[in-house]
Design a protein that fits this description.
Elements (H helix, E strand, L loop, with lengths): L1 E6 L2 E5 L3 H10 L5 E14 L2 E21 L6 E11 L9 E6 L5 E4 L4 H15 L3 E6 L3 E8 L2 E9 L7 H19 L5 E5 L2 H13 L1 H4 L2 E5 L5 H9 L2 H27 L4 E3 L1 H9 L3 E7 H6 L1 H12 L3 E5 L4 H6 L4 E5 L5
Helix pairs in contact: 1-2, 8-10
Amino acid sequence: MKLIHREEGKLKLSPQSLEDLWYLTKIVSVGDIVEGHSFRSFKAEGRNRPVTTEKKKVKLELKLDNVEFSESVNKLRLTGIILSGSPEEYVSFGEHHTLDVELGENFVLKKRLSTMEESFLQEALKKSAKTKIGVVVMDEHAARLARIDVRGVKFAGEIENKANKHDPKNFDSLQASYFLELAKAIEGEDTIVIAGPGFARDNFKKFLGEKKPELLKKAYFEHCSTAEESGVYELLKNRVLERVMKNQRIAMEFGLLEDLKMHIGKEDGLVAYGVESVESAVDYNAAEKLLVLDELVRTDAKANALVEKARLKGAELVIFDSEDSAGREFEAFKIAALLRFKIR
């Protein structure tokens, strides 16, 4: 979850994951007032043309009478009475409307959170704070380092390449030193995006393959037009980093799937799957990680209650997206738990 702005009785939020959408169902309630952007249909009439229906983007304030994690797609549907909006000519005050809050979209919640709602928000923010990506934009002259997290971009300095083609005798050793210094600077990152406009990026990739293969496994190589700080923002604008984070997420899901299948194969009692078995594990406080398919959370009240119970007992929640490859494979289980200890 990204908390963009907060003041007394007002929060600007942006969900970043499926878990965030679930958390929002626990924070946003019937009777709350929300504000966001949407599209409204209106009839356009012309003197010499037939009546047509057009859609216009509007900013709306709603008083909610329904909040749901959509049954068909991964979005939060906020339905209520229109209190205000702009441009006013496209807004019908008092009518019902639905704001669809999707991943990465901002909306404003106007309320003072209860103690329980605040705990849900802080939990979501804490989970999102763990998501970080290291970024390098580089060319034959220098490399600039940055880190992307839920709070934005933080630049972390520059490493200069002292290799010069006019000094062929020392070129290879100086370039190797440049690459080695850069490798040391990024070795603590879990995920790294390395981008640039020319061959330096490709040469660094070759260097990592030969000297630092463990780093190469964590790296994504992309194109950007400059090795300046603006190159990092170019990657953001072109949604390259968003795609990498999505791939990172899928890799994490596949890792959990492999853990699940490994424990099933070993018959070591450290896994539970199916609603009844998982509920039993949760009751014994044995569930360390709760894995659940998004469709089940959206459509099954019993499963949703089980997710809430597991969360209160300290289990880490992971919601699988049924639209991606890991989610399609997890569909055979729908709900499962990796256990701290055997319960029988």
